[in-house]
């Protein structure tokens, strides 16, 4: 057999798959019960009325045919209404909303529709590792926007390349667990207007914000829809991670490119999943607040142990004590965290702790970590 295509050999090691393999191997070793605080996998699923909507739709014979590749109109309308009422953003459901099988898919596909081979994509450091995967598939050149705690994890726009195809942002941030710093969205719009680049804002953790903060969309910034798009996920707000459903919203030209690619690579999202998402978006929202409150309470417990404070997401970004590494925690404490280095060079010396774990597991892990942070 001939060698694989270059696009496959360019792919980096998939960080979370590798991390899961290491954790599972360590958990099989003898010792105290292993505690995994590294994975961001919602431990509570969607509310019952959403599951009921899926089941009701799935028993209809017509549900099992090919759906329209661009999604149900009522689903796009439901998301547009959420954006209008909650985030203060007006969206045209037909032109400015694309339905995708999860925003992880969209992360890769946006690279394909925004950057030709050799063009530059600017990715946050630290940032979600799969941004690198999309760039690799596109054959794009990667530049990093250096994010520093001293700057509230806002990019220095003056230092960014002027010839980039796109800039990826992510607030609330995975892994840094901060909400958008004051003025960062307006600065991003100004930078994009000057350079002609597209801004891609990953809003996966939109509604998981703490300390009385309000959810904030990049698209609410004046001029944002002219220069960028936003990714919205059903996974975190509604606990629908395994259902694989998300959206690309905003700039109509970029949405059209995603829809064009969709018609060539898939036949849409299973109709009952879309109908269940309509139920989630338009039905009772009690579970959203309950989920947010649960994560905030866990955030408080992690802060009491480590001193690190999360502003949002279901993570806390923790600077490890001198001499402590994620590998050492696995070996000595039988606690797994996500090593900061996996999120970029500026993650060295840091670790991401997940709040999306059962309370007893979190407390057991924090009890073992406490002596290291005292």
Indicate the low-confidence ranges by residue numbers. none
Beta content comes to 5-15%
CATH class of the largest domain: Alpha Beta
Number of domains: 2
Number of helices: 14
* Proportion in helices: 40-55%
Side by side, the strands of the main sheet go 2-8-7-6-5-3-4
CATH structural fold name of the largest domain: Aspartate Aminotransferase, domain 2
Q: What value does the average pLDDT take? A: 95
Q: In the CATH hierarchy, what is the superfamily of the largest domain?
A: Type I PLP-dependent aspartate aminotransferase-like (Major domain)
Q: From the structure provided, what is the oligomeric state, counting identical versus distinct chains? A: single chain
Word description of this protein:
The protein is of the alpha/beta class and 374 residues long. The chain has two domains: 128 residues, Aspartate Aminotransferase, domain 1 (Alpha-Beta Complex), CATH 3.90.1150; 218 residues, Aspartate Aminotransferase, domain 2 (3-Layer(aba) Sandwich), CATH 3.40.640. The chain is built from 14 helices and twelve strands. The strands form three sheets. The chain has a seven-stranded mixed sheet, sandwiched between helices. The protein has a three-stranded antiparallel sheet with strand order 9-12-11, covered by helices on one side. Helix 6 links the parallel strand 3 and strand 4. Helix 3 runs antiparallel to helix 11 and helix 5 runs parallel beside helix 6. It is globular.
